[in-house]
Write a structure and sequence with these properties.
2,3-Dihydroxybiphenyl 1,2-Dioxygenase, domain 1, Glyas_Fos-R_dOase_dom, Catechol 2,3-dioxygenase-like lactoylglutathione lyase family enzyme, Glyas_Bleomycin-R_OHBP_Dase, alpha/beta, globular, single chain, lyase activity, 23% helix, 2 domains
Length: 139
């Protein structure tokens, strides 16, 4: 298996609300897609939104579940000020603030929010490791 993630698909309770959050709130560019799913192009991968029940049925697993899912999605940015701005943008779009941005033990600066379905996102500035849109390693 090659070390890459082609797509991240999030199971959501309210597809239209989640589309609005990611497209209008966070500014993710939406791709053409059938009405029962939404796709957003990211930098080298895609984000998919699919009904929670339908995604669980497709994988043959239970749709029940709550609490911490044991993973987070991360978005690295170029500065501490950008961390503050992105976290605020998410909160303004309807995200719940989980951890206010602050300096962290590994030498960076980060904050956490959850999307309308409770998916955990970290926004971080890591002065030791930056992969951005102009970096050759971002592909």
């Amino acid at each position: 298996m090659q070390p890459r993630i082609s797509m991240i698909t999030l199971g959501v309770r309210d597809l239209e609300q989640s589309i609005d959050f990611y497209e209008n709130g966070l500014g993710f560019p939406r791709m053409e897609s059938p009405p029962e799913v939404a796709f957003f192009t990211l930098n080298g991968t895609w984000l998919g939104l699919f009904g929670r029940e339908s995604l669980a049925a497709d994988a043959h697993v239970s749709a029940e579940g709550s609490g911490f899912n044991a993973f987070s999605l991360a978005h690295n940015v170029a500065s501490e000020a950008e961390v503050d701005a992105v976290v605020q943008q998410a909160v303004d779009a309807g995200a719940a603030l989980v951890k206010k941005p602050e300096k962290v033990f590994w030498g960076g600066y980060s904050g956490y929010f959850t999307d309308p379905d409770g998916h955990l996102w970290e926004v971080a500035h890591n002065p030791h490791f930056w992969v951005g849109p102009d970096d050759d390693d971002a592909q």
